[in-house]
Please model this.
Amino acid sequence: MLKNRLVAHAGLIAAACLAPLVALAQGAYPNKSIKIIAPVQPGGGVDLVARQVGERLSKALGQPVVIENQSGGGGVVGSQATARAAPDGYTLMVGYVGTHGTNPAVRKLPYDAVKDFTPVAMVGGTPNILVVTPSLPVKTLPEFIAYAKANKDKLSYGSSGPGTLTHLAMEQLKVEADIDLAHAAYRGIGPAITDILGGQTQALFPGLAAALPHIKAGKMRPLAITGLKRNPLVPDVPTFEELGFKGFDGVQWYGIVGPANMPPAIVATLNSEINKMLADPSFAERLSAEALQPMPMTPSAFAQYIRDDIAKWTKVAKERNIQLTD
Model:
């Protein structure tokens, strides 16, 4: 009996000694550099979010955060690399409306935007704004709709490419307003803006950041903006919601995701640190360069947001028979 007691006592001592080591191991994240993949070329909202989040995370967690641009396939290359990475918290990615919203709605992808990723934290979003060329004799959304109906087959709109948010948002409006405009797809928002400024197209549904300089210069006329409330950068522009169009709350959003099955404790740590950033006015000021507003969420709320966004654009794609094969 004495021997059994000694063995039991020794076991307790060993367990007591191991407990701090186990706790240390669990609390060691991160103990090396973290990589954030930006699945686009440098520049623009995705790259901005990656670099701003990376800079703040590095300071908060005490480890280097490396930004790696992996462009290609409209975000597919970077998304695949992230989905295949070890789910240890050392490979993250800026998931955005393209990779985790519109692309899954219109394309057959080599990844599952829901099952292959761990939503970590939403960062922010910028609304889309319907603009027309100033030469068009309309000043409000109802006037635009009436004009489009009276001038069938005479109007066209540009987009940054088939299946992008700028394409699907306008197709959503065409369904809801029962109007028809020809679609001119471009390779990026830049050429689409060039052509509306030149009068080759009459309407565009870009993100606010891309449109804002031209709105201020009087070269684009804003008619309505997405979101549930007016944007402070264009306070005189009404929302679609207040004009009677429900469901126009989509935004160009950006968040941080990782591979599927990341440890909940690591996700919680990252989410907490990112939400602290979003509460910092100086960080919000940095985001304002792309007209981004902070959108803090829990990981579960962010996961639901992604599912809802895919469902929204899938519905539009089915209604307009938009399915891309390239």
Remarks:
- The longest strand covers residues 117-127.
- The radius of gyration is 24 Å.
